[in-house]
Amino acid sequence: MSLFRGFLVIAFIWAAFCFSGFGQEPATEKWADFASVDYDIQPNVTYETANNTDLKLDIYLPKDRSKPSPTLVLFHGGGWVAGAKEQNVLYLLPYLSMGWTVVNVEYRLARNSLAPAAVEDCRCSLRWLVYHAKDYNIDTSRIVLTGTSAGGHLSLMSGMLPDGSIFDRQCPTDGSTKWRTPTEPVIKIAAIVNWFGIADVADILEGQNAKHYAIEWFGSRPDRMELARQLSPINYVRPGIPPIISIQGDQDDIAPYADTVKLHAELEKAKVPNRLITLKGRNHGGFSREEMIAGYAAIRQFLRENNVIEGK
User: Which of 61, 146, 163, 259 has the fewest CB atoms inside 10 Å of its own CB, making it the most exposed?
Assistant: First the structure.
């Protein structure tokens, strides 16, 4: 995407926000009026090259960087086979209105590289962020991941994988450690905001819940079921992982809602701070204005309860 198109997207974001339901609140309306002078935008920064592909991210930076800020990292949806980082930019607006730094990440889709490439790329984007935290004055203790659908799955996987995961091995390290040590930087995530993401990849690869987008992501790999289990967030639940809040419709027929219910039951057993917001009668997204406002209110409260943002 050209730089010109990138700035057109940004202009659309601000315009859409001004005329959205959020704009009905006086404080938010005021923020929309001066947001353009409060933020710098660095589009299409290369964070990695994989399979001869330069992978990009966009950085939305508060101009006041006198102190480290919380950072939201967004992974777009599209079933690992479609979509683009510009697709879900409106999900960034509530975090921008709070003065956060925001990072919007692209990753390889199935037509370029089959599973597990998307997970590897998202993990590498977080490593890049850790390496460059001082450049952008990012508070690495307050990094929050989010995404919709496949992006929700990638947020869960990127935040739940243990240190030293096999899916980190292709990520470049800095020059001081690359040649003489096996040292890997620790990636610490403060919370995960999961919008109707896939909790159990194996469940949608074979059986009654199988979906063709998942079949396309794995292609003809002979080890696809074993790999699908390795790429399923539900298999990484354990004490000490980041707090997780999920928002999903109970009629979702693309990312099985029942799997998200199981995920949160396992989180409860492991005593991981978590919350599941169920939207009755809703499918895969398509929520109302009122549901989105209530959803973000719940997200902000969850982040306060888990010390990511201050206040009551």
Answer: 163
Domains of the chain, each with CATH number or no CATH: 38-167+185-305 (3.40.50.1820)
Predicted TM-score (pTM) of the model is 0.90
At 204-225, the pLDDT tens digits run 999 999 999 999 999 999 999 9
For 305, the token pair is 């309860």
